[in-house]
Amino acid sequence: MSALLSLHGILVRRDLRAVLEVESLSIEQGETLAIVGPNGAGKSTLLLVMARLLKPDHGKLIFGQLPAEQLSAKDYRRRLALVMQEPLLLNRSVSENVALGLRFRGVKAAERTPRVDLWLERLGIGHLAMRRAGSISGGEARRASLARALVLEPELLLLDEPFSGLDPLNQETVL
């Protein structure tokens, strides 16, 4: 079985200083991988490289059997979802925020609505569906961002500090 995503010889520099060096990393289909380290160790940088939002100075990514650059950025990104540490929500309802990626992908409302409702309920924020995103707490915003990623059913889910801003009870909900 081949890896879903492989990184080889990745190097990212900022101001001529190496901020990320990855000799080799492979993520298998269905695998859960946690990257831990102190602040400034390059964890977020690694996720940005994996999502092709940051081009490394050196190295290559392989998605499935193909070098990542053989896939358009759009096709590549449609196969994954990235949730950064700080929730990025638009000034719309929670439900509209969660549905956004599905709308961009042309998913019809008849399919979109039940998928959105399912993930809002699973993450314990179904009661917030019609609230404006700007009026919810940080932990609720975090769960809305997770729902927006999960509703896409990505092949690869990248999470930057997935439990940041969540109390222990809500961490259990997310797990």
Question: What is the element layout, followed by pairings?
Answer:
Layout: E1 5-14, E2 17-27, H1 43-50, E3 58-63, E4 66-67, H2 73-77, E5 80-83, H3 94-104, H4 109-122, H5 138-150, E6 156-159, H6 168-174
Parallel strand pairs: 5-6
Antiparallel strand pairs: 1-2, 1-3, 3-4
Helix pairs in contact: 3-4, 3-5
Describe the protein:
The chain is globular, with a radius of gyration of 17 Å. The protein has helices at residues 43-50, 73-77, 94-104, 109-122, 138-150, 168-174, and strands spanning 5-14, 17-27, 58-63, 66-67, 80-83, 156-159. The strands form two sheets. It has a four-stranded antiparallel beta sheet, with helices on one face. It is of the alpha+beta class and 175 residues long.
- Write down how many β-strands occur, each being a DSSP E stretch of 2 or more residues: 6
Give the DSSP E fraction (strand runs of 2 or more residues). Answer: 15-25%
Oligomer: single chain
Which value, in Å, is the CA radius of gyration? 17 Å
Order of helices and strands: EEHEEHEHHHEH
Q: Sheet with the most strands?
A: 4 strands, antiparallel
Strand order of the largest sheet: 2-1-3-4
Count of alpha/pi helices: 6
Low-confidence stretches: none
- How far the N terminus sits from the C terminus, by CA atoms, comes to 27 Å
Helix content: 25-40%
Shape estimate = globular
